[in-house]
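Re-running the complex after MR caught last week's input typo. The corrected sequence lines follow. Everything else is unchanged.
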Amino acid sequence: MADTIVLPNTIQKPPERSGFNRFYRKHRNLIVGLLFISPWIVGFVAFLLYPILYTLQISFTRYSGFGEPVPVGFENYQHMLNDSVFWIAVGNTAFYLALAVPIGVVVAMVLALAMNQPVREVSIYRAILYLPSILPLFALSFVYLALLHPSRGIFNQFLINLGLPNINWLGDPQYSKIALVMLAQFGAGQAALIFLAALKGIPPSFHEAAMLDGASAWRRFWGITLPLMTPVILYDLILGLSLGIQIFTQVFIIFGSDPPGSPANSTMMYVVYLYLNGFRYSQMGYAAALALVLFVVTLILAMLVFRWSRGWVHYEGA
Amino acid sequence: MAKAIPAASAAREAPVTNWWLHPVRVLNQSVVPRLILIVMCAVFILPLFWMVSVALKPTAELSLYPPTFWPQQLRWENFSDAINVFPFWQYLRNTSIITGLTVLGAVISNPIIAYGFSRIDWPGRDKVFFVVLATVFIPYPVLIIALFDIFARLGWINTFWPLTVPLFFGNPFWIFLLRQFFMQISQEVSDAARIDGASELRILFQIIMPQALPALAVVALFAALHAWNDFLGPLLYLQDATMYTLAVGLTFFQSASQYDIQFNLLMAASLLVVAPVITLFLIFQRAFVEGISFGGSK
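Corrected-run output:
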């Protein structure tokens, strides 16, 4: 009676007690894997996905933070177009990004190249250069107030000794953004360490071969070092943009004397304006619209940089 | 060993055929880099130096023009005065609680998540991991309006929960760091344990974690820094002055005008806030440097 075709199957797989057991056995890895990453899934939905969707919802309302949001359609977005401070904030943030991020890459590259040379006491330099990266930004900002103070700060004394004019960095709208760009460079130590690790990863044989062909150090930098560094430069560029676009703490502390963004809105950055609308002017709806625009702009910016990078990032094996 | 490196790399360079090329090489390899590094180090240490210098000056010395580089007179009482300007001990306590919970959350959640992304092979894993990495680029301020409203509805404003609970659900940077580390650990021992019937959680805690302690220490360090250095979070969610952290507490020193701040007291207070960070850095310098360099080597 025994069915010879079915028999081997029944021997290999004893009958399952329930559907779930069969399901579990078949998809064990998927289930266990998802269970392990489930904290991330919960966090992703609760603290990222849902807030973004909720932001979208609030952005179509007038909402003071108390009571119920009143739907107003696209009013907040329309208001943005006519809001002169909004455009000032966009311009200031773009100016800041356009200077602080590329200069940061160059400063970090110079530091990394210098640290990659056979300098025996390099660990001391490395420590000093990296230290400001882990110091709290709020503390650096407070010191910056003391450093750049027109009469009490030491920074202008250096400038005067070099024969340069005494600049009111924090009070002159012409220089206030430059002061923020300079402050950002104190974080270059972190990128320099990442660049240095990438430099150390370049096989010495590449340089040796080029040297045998008589390539100068200058040519080797442009022909070998830089192309091999492009993946980390891209990483630093994107991260720098994403962090730079969030600039807030420095402005709030250094230029925070009411109203923040002083002097004359010259340091009114995008997130500062978002904060003011949401938490000082009780314009949560408008602030939500600003937040959503920030989200979209960051995505577009990252996508543009990625697309642009295809022309210059060198991937090994490609 | 340290001495051998310059010699070896000098030998690696093109053979010396013209003696006069040698000084050029010395100049390029050790004089110019040193000069750059020393000048840059002088710039990078300046904020810390000025913090210490101003923190020790008596108030009268602050108004001297030009300002004195070194304090002419050391006034150590600035520190005790600074502590009395704002509720320093209360804020130290608040900051410590938030930092402790942050480290706890990071050290519990990230290894579990990283394990799911590295030691278990499930379909679609790498695609989901790509989403984890992509979230790095979303600026936090995008979320603050919605998060504030959500936390307000939960009654979490003026509690430490908005600053600590999210840390129990993983952070993309730290998941990435631990995942890279976990992937380097040999598969054999965990396979053997699996055959012996050990659960995945047991494999994580008894086999993987002991081998990943250095990486876990790096995560703990960065988590502590993240909490200690945060300004925007406490500013948003802690509005009652008794709940402030040190970061927000320092704004007590700001007056209506940025020009008449009591700089010596502000710098003394800042120095007290920064001191634990510098201490941590000096103790765990290698861990910091390796944790950062990790991103560069992929």
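None of the earlier attempt is carried over here. Residues 103 and 223 of chain B are 5 Å apart (CA to CA). Chain B has a mean pLDDT of 88.
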